[in-house]
């Protein structure tokens, strides 16, 4: 059994037991998670991942849940929501830096995203789109990436887009400005 008291001591944010994911996702879908963690800040998010990795417990990271489809069965293990801890956008030195939990609709238009595609994915998160690359829009968005900040081996690391592997967790991303898709 998970030592949730220990998790509460190290991670600021909300912690729920048996909570329906539908109450926390934009698509209003998803059955109960054994444990639902909504970390307050990036360091809390990273500590929650580390906690579940070290305790060898199954966990899943979910952004906004716009493409979540568990058929109402929920998730055996923990779900860590990134939307609160990993949101925000800044524009500096020819790039847009966005947290993985940021809504795609909150990205500035300067990164030349096709308008129709943005509408279709408006409720999705940056991290979800880049992790899944489920369609041409997501693949084209990935083509705008200058670097990704990943949580890898217990720490945050910046990598080039070709350094991102399946199953890795994106913390933030830098998009190049001014390049048309």
Summarize the structure in words.
The protein has 181 residues and is α+β, with helices and mostly antiparallel strands. It folds into 2 domains: 4-81, Uridine Diphospho-n-acetylenolpyruvylglucosamine Reductase, domain 2, CATH 3.30.43; 89-176, Uridine Diphospho-n-acetylenolpyruvylglucosamine Reductase, domain 3 (2-Layer Sandwich), CATH 3.30.465.10. The protein contains 5 helices and 9 strands; from the N terminus they run αββαββββαααβββ. This is UDP-N-acetylmuramate dehydrogenase.
Summarize the structure in short.
The protein is α+β, with helices and mostly antiparallel strands. The protein is 22% helix and 31% strand. The longest helix is centred in the N-terminal third of the chain and has 13 residues, at 42-54.
CATH topology of the largest domain: Uridine Diphospho-n-acetylenolpyruvylglucosamine Reductase, domain 3
* Apparent shape: globular
Task: Profile the largest sheet.
Answer: 5 strands, antiparallel
Tally of strands:
9
Structural class: alpha+beta
Low-confidence stretches: none
Number of domains: 2
Distance between the termini: 48 Å
Range of helix content? 10-25%
Q: How is the largest sheet built, in terms of strand order?
A: 5-6-9-7-8
Organism: Chlorobium luteolum (strain DSM 273 / BCRC 81028 / 2530)
GO biological process, one term: cell wall organization
GO molecular function: flavin adenine dinucleotide binding; UDP-N-acetylmuramate dehydrogenase activity
Protein name: UDP-N-acetylmuramate dehydrogenase
């Amino acid at each position: 059994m998970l030592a949730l008291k220990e998790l509460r001591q190290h991670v600021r944010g909300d912690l729920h037991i048996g909570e329906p994911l539908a109450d926390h996702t934009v698509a209003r879908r998803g059955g109960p998670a054994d444990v639902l963690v909504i970390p307050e800040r990036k360091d809390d998010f990273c500590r929650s991942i580390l906690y579940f990795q070290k305790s060898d417990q199954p966990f899943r990271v979910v952004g906004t849940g716009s493409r979540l489809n568990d058929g109402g069965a929920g998730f055996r293990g923990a779900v860590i929501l990134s939307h609160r801890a990993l949101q925000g956008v800044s524009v500096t030195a020819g790039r847009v830096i966005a947290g993985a939990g940021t809504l795609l609709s909150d990205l500035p238009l300067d990164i030349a995203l096709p308008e129709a595609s943005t509408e279709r994915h408006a409720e999705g998160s940056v991290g979800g789109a880049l992790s899944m690359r489920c369609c041409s829009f997501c693949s084209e968005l990935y083509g705008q990436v200058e670097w990704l900040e990943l949580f890898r081996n217990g720490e945050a690391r910046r990598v080039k887009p070709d350094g991102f592997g399946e199953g890795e967790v994106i913390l933030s991303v830098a998009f190049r400005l001014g390049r048309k898709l």
